[in-house]
Amino acid sequence: MSLQIFILGILCEGHRHPYDIKKMFKQESLAPEIRITDGTLYYHFEALTKRKFVEKMTTSREENRPERTLYGITELGREALVEMIYKSFRNFKEVSDLYPCILFIHHVSRERVIGMLEDCIEVMNKKIRRYEKIWNEVPPESNDHPIVLNAKNLQEHAMNRAKTDLEWLERVLERTRSN
């Protein structure tokens, strides 16, 4: 999941401290498999600041706590968010790569993203057809070989995952069309 898309998307909703964004990311279970360290988070805030996508709004300190800097998104950052979302759709490989894009899909052109979702669906259909072709080419006499039997288990998992991803993309497309 692109942490920069998540940061920019959240900042489109209002000013935030990096730590608040980290808590949101983890509390909402948006990507529980992804570990976000403070170093990673602050690295991305620094990179976004250098590119003038975000800016420091205020800095405050409460008692014995470290300084807290409130960030906001710039107009350049809003434009970058849109382009990052489109780029993620264009470079589609895995459904999980689209998670931040789906969260902030309301920031992009509905018509354009519908076409991009249709392209992602075609990529998944091609992947499924490729899996089917590979397994249809396995000679029947090799079906009893242990490696082939184990490979079929892997293929079954990959095929089921691809079909589940395809169904999910189709639902996202339908919801996007109806909104």
Automatic annotation (TrEMBL):
It comes from the Bacteria. Residues 7-81 form the Transcription regulator PadR N-terminal domain. It holds the Pfam family PadR. This is PadR family transcriptional regulator. The lineage of its organism: Bacteria, Bacillati, Bacillota, Bacilli, Bacillales.
